[in-house]
Amino acid sequence: KMTQQMRDLQLAQARKPPGPSSPNAAKRLYRNLSGKFRVNYTSFDEGSLAGRGEKEKLRKSYLFQSNAALFEAVELQDLDRVQELLKQYSPEELDFNTPNSEGLLPLDIAIMTNNAPIARALLQAGGKESPHFMSLESRSLHLSTLVREAEQRVNELTAQVVNEAPNTDCSEKEKQLKAWEWRYRLYKRMKAGFEHARVPDAPTNVHLSVASSSSVQVTFWEPLSVNSAVVTKYKVEWSCSPTFSPRLGEAVIDKLKNLHFTIRGLVSGTAYYVQVSAYNMKGWGPPQASVPPFAIPSNWREYDGRAPRRRGQAEALDHLLGQVKTVHQHCVCHEPCKNQPQSRKHSVSKSLKHLFHPGSKFLKTLKRGLYLTAIFYKDDNILVTHEDQIPVVEIDDTYSCLLMQDFLWFTKVSCMWDEILWLRQCVTVSQSSCSCILQTRFKMLLAISQMQGLLGIQDLGQVFFEPVKDKQGNILIVTLKEVKTNQTFESVRWVPICKLQTSRKSVSSPEEPTALDTLLISIQDKLAYHQRSSHALSPGLYLGYLKLCSAVDQIRVLVPEQLPNILCHVKIRSNPNISREEWERLQKMASVEEPIPAEPEAENSQNHLFQELQVAIKELMTLVNIPLQEAKDFRLYSQEVLDFGGQVSFLLLLPPSDDVCTAPGQNNPYTPRSGFLTLPLQIFELGEER
Question: Region Disordered: which residues (predicted)?
Answer without folding.
Answer: 1-25
